[in-house]
Amino acid sequence: MEPKHDERRGAITIGFDVSWTMDKGAPFTAAELEKIRADFPILHQKVHGHPLVYLDNAATSQKPRAVIDALVHYYEHDNANVHRGIHELSNRASNAYEATRVRAAKFLNARSHDEIIFTRGTTEGINLVAASWALHNLRAGDRILLTEMEHHSNIVPWQLLADRIGAKLAFIPVNGDEGILDLSRLDELLLAPTKLLSITHISNSLGTINPVEEICARARKADVVTIVDGAQASGHRPVDVQEIGCDFYSLSSHKMCGPTGVGILYGRMEQLQRMSPYQGGGDMISDVDYLKSSWAKIPHKFEAGTPNIGDVIAFSAAMDYLDKIGRARIAQHDMELGAYAYERLSALEGIRLFGPKKGRAGVASFLLKDIHAHDVVTIADQRGVALRGGHHCNQPLMKKLGVSSTSRASFYLYNTKEEVDRLVEVLAEIQKFFAA
Ligand SMILES: Cc1ncc(COP(=O)(O)O)c(C=O)c1O
User: How close are the terminal C-alpha atoms of the chain, in Å?
Assistant: First the structure.
């Protein structure tokens, strides 16, 4: 849909009304799926002579026309720096930038748009909490609780912090290939000296959907501050930060139909008020003197320098798009494809499948006997199927599972069961090739 420039608001409107509804999650009809696919120009191409089957969505998603148009529109009509200028273009850019903050608050059901901080992505959001909250609120001997399935971006920032202040790390165990968290000792692990719990909502390599509401409720009872890594969840299901009950929620726009280089850190106001600035520079100050400065109000206090204006504004179009389709329906579609892939892949001889047998997200990680994941992915690419092979930034989990890498297919709203069938067909060919 063509974005329209709105002279009055100075912002971009994408052309459909977005009222935030938690829809019921009915499956997509074939006609709807076809329409969705038509929204994504990149999908309609051949790769190495075969129709592209894009199954690397956990790494990054493709972008619908509405998002691409919003980005082009911004640079063709409204490009200027935000918050500083008095001229028309700067006002437009500022309005559209701040409108995205309001949009994001609605998308996550935050209490206020002041609880939305723009970042570069999930990784930066977690680093921001480590540098601005944890550095000042934790001390030597305090414990940071993580899980064994965390992405490197939810492990390494805590290792850096722990080294700096003498805090300790502990991990909620994952029970084997099925990849479900063992919560039997959670209450014990949440006792002092644990002060902070940081967990992934959905695992990027296992497809496990963690019960974050329950985990955060148990953490709250123990007075433990909670961070949820929403990289794999925020574009794939309805996310309500108040219902989850977390203190922080970090996400990346590029995994949810939006541009790269933009993310959101949601922070509960009570916690944001306990934080010092993350970086120093323009825009985050109220007054600067040679020896001392005071800070802008929250959330600007945490956004130093010129932000990624165009991509933030186009991210708004991505949120509109996801809500137009319906996030509960996207979740339903993801889970259907995840279950279908699990069933079809299980039938391949000698396959080792990781992640839950039931209730999995749209992610399927596997090993084809002793065929290296890089060989699987390289040959699949020759047949137009885009997969990912490696440790998926989950090296500690891979070590625990006794593997160095897996092949991974990850699905999104535009993928179809026929594409899963194509994946299985290609994998069977690969097995045959290596057996010969
Ligand atoms: C679970 C999880 N957390 C964090 C990240 C990091 O996201 P980004 O690189 O966008 O910061 C990823 C990326 O794959 C992820 O899957």
Answer: 50
